[in-house]
Amino acid sequence: MSPSNRAQPGRRPGRRPQGPRRPGERGGTRPADPARLAAFEVLKAVRVDEAYANLVLPHVLGRLGLEGRDAAFATELASGTLRQQGTYDAVLAACIDRPLAKVEAKVLDVLRLGAHQVLSMRVPDHAAISTSVDLTRSKVGQGPAGFVNAVLRKVTRKPLEEWVAEVAPAREKDHDGWATVAFSHPRWVVERLAEAVGRDQVDALLEADNVPPSVTLVARPGRATVAELGGTPTPYSPFGVTMDSGSPAGIAAVAEGRAGVQDEGSQLVAIALAEAALDQPQDRPETWLDLCAGPGGKSALLAALAAQQGALLVANERQPHRAGLVLANLTDRSAGSQVEGVAGVVAGDGTRPPFKDATFDRILVDAPCTGLGALRRRPEARWRRAKADLDVLVGLQRSLLDRAIDLTRPGGVVLYATCSPVLAETKGVVEGVLEGRSDVTLEPILGTVGEVPDSAGPLDGTVQLWPHRHGTDAMFLALLRRVPEGIS
Question: Region (Disordered) spans which residues (predicted)?
Answer without folding.
Answer: 1-33
